[in-house]
Amino acid sequence: MRVLRAEEKDIPKLVEVYLEGYKGLEEYAYTHPDDVQVYLNWLFRRDIAGIWIAKDKNRIVGFIASDGNWFSKREGKVVGALHELVVLPEYRGKGIGKKLVEKALEYFKDRGLDTVELWVGDQNKQAIEFYKSLGFQEKDRFNYWVRMTKTLS
Quick check: pTM over 0.90? Predict the structure, then answer.
């Protein structure tokens, strides 16, 4: 398993991974390929250097979209934001998500950021527990979203 910086040419494959990865959690996701493509293009424009892919041989099996330019109104400063973490269902539980998050946290530390935030769907219990296992804490809620943060040391 390799973790590499994503390139814009990877977007069509990332659309496929996104749609497959969100099966069963569609209430928290874009469901039309065109919408996913627009969203991924936005993520690349936000911080092209912060998008990482996990590859098994030549297959993209997961990705993380981290953003080192995110101004958090709740934190009152620029923080690292994890906008998206998706791992194909058949590759979950193998440490891929953890490796991707670790790569993003390393990226944020290199940029001198001290806080990371993310939003996760309130019924996505598996993801919430995963983030808690990595040291994230629930901070607040908005509608059906939970905001979690982690202090970088």
Answer: yes
